[in-house]
Amino acid sequence: MEFKANFLGGLFVDIIFYGIQFFFFSVIYSYVDALGVFTREDVIIFLIITFLSDTVYMFFFSGNLFNLNRWMVRGDLDFILLKPVPSQFMVSFRFVKSYAIISLFILIAMLFMLLASYRQPIGLLNVLIFIVSFLFGQILWYSVEFIISSSCFWFKNFSVAGWLSHEIMKFATRPDSIYTGLLRKVLFSFIPMILIASLPTRMLIYGPDMQYLFGQLLITTIFLMSARLVWKRGLIRYESASS
Amino acid sequence: MKAWIEKYFAVVQMTWIQTLEYKANAIVGTFAIFSGLLIEFLIWRQVFQTQNITELRGFTFNGLMAYIFLCMIVGQLKSSWATSIEMIDSIRTGELNKYLIRPISFFTYHFMMFIGHNSLFYIVYISVLILFPIFLPGWAFHTMFHILGFAVALLISIYLSYAIYFCMVCFAFWFGEVRALVIAYNVSNIVLSGQIIPLRLFPEYVREIIYYTPLQFLVDFPVSIATGNLPMHLWLPKMGLAICWCIVVSVIGRIIYRSGIRVYGGFGA
Fold first, then answer.
1. Percentages (nearest 5) of helix, strand, coil residues in chain A
2. C-alpha dihedral over B233, B236, B239, B243, to 10 degrees?
């Protein structure tokens, strides 16, 4: 909270980003009534959930994982490893981006309003399963980002990790109904971007699907364990500053 | 003049050598273009299939894909936000001092650095552009004039984009934190300059507003020339207008920079 300009700036960027995404879909939906099962109304809810995921990720992780490469190259990682705290926890949760709290409240309020005015009532079970699915999605996002960021141990200086993650995450910012065939299978499994925001949206508005939910749990567990493994392997390779 | 060219060419060369060390940039950049194109392909395919149409405001599906593909390349070539962030840091930390005491321009030095940094992209994307008419004949670059027109419009776009970023960077003299402004502009620019949706598909009122700004010359103009969406008789008047925008934005940047230098404290030096 010491850096008010940063705080306001972050908020400003978020507002622009949300506005631009809405504008993008408003142009698309001026030519079409629905993208697969996602109507205009559904896509707005999907976008809010995508923004919520993004905001939660920004709040907890982005200020940490984005810097991992720099910490490794400059040797700052040494100080983290010396602390009597699990190192993966420390590099993942050291800093928070406080401005995201404001966005978080606004987005939750918007989601409630949209759900209240949705064409059919949304049951409590939908909301509960959505929360679980959303959390799985967050853990999955964290795991994917963490694996990409940790690749700096192998590439020595992987400064484009943030850019690469951003490009992969783009698949999560579009409704899953546009993906078909092999690509859809890949985005459900090896690069599970559909599971981050699209699946929780489906759980919320179209009702719980236990098969999807258990699939999400399985993939999330595999990715979380992979992230742990990559970190441990990476630390073995780590040679301190200027490595 | 010769000394000026040699001086700044040395900057391009130096940055070029640095850039060659980081080939991953070009690989991720190429991935960004193809992954972005894939998403656009899937969305627009669904629009065309659902509506059962073969043309959308003058765009066939293939024509639209060629347009978006070129837009993504141009969008990446002209984007100098990373250089802009470095310039903002120079002002914030007082590193700008070294430009003030040496016979070198802050604007031109960073412009050359930007060109140098992007040089790997230029090689990769120019190769892609050369292959474009070979593998997808008739989708773009119908004649040599189209190639030439595209090249000129692209140069204008790169300069204009950099000059706009420079204006925003100069606000760092008054407000320490203007990175948010640059990032917000960059995010909005991706859509509003027509990088992922052609301007022609925008609602009428939004398009009219954009046509009063230089945004139309950043991506839409060069790509419209390449794909033949802009009639040839409009090329020169539009290029004239784009050059006018370059002059206007450069002058504004210069004024802001000069005013900024007066309030600059050189802290952190």
1. 75, 0, 25
2. -160
Main-chain dihedrals φ then ψ at residue B261, nearest 5 degrees: -60, -35
* Helix (H) and strand (E) counts in chain B: 11, 0
Residue of B nearest to A175 (CA): B43
Chain B contact set for A168 (CB, 8 A): 35
**Cβ A9–B202 below 8 Å, yes or no?**
no
- Taking CB atoms and an 8 Å cutoff, what residues of chain A touch B201? 27, 31
pTM of the model: 0.87
Q: Which amino acid is at A111?
A: L
Reported ipTM exceeds the 0.90 cut: no
* Out of A27, A33, A158, closest to residue B197 by CB: A27
Structural contact between residues A158 and A66, judged by C-beta atoms closer than 8 angstroms: no
CB A177 to CB B25 under 8 A?
no
Domain positions in chain A are 4-237
Cα–Cα separations (whole angstroms), residue A108 to A119, A134, A191, A214: 19, 13, 27, 25
C-alpha–C-alpha distance, residues B22 and B124, integer Å: 14
Q: A167-224, pLDDT tens digit by residue?
A: 899 999 999 999 999 999 999 999 999 999 999 999 999 999 999 999 999 999 999 9
Q: Do B46 and A155 touch (CB under 8 A)?
A: no
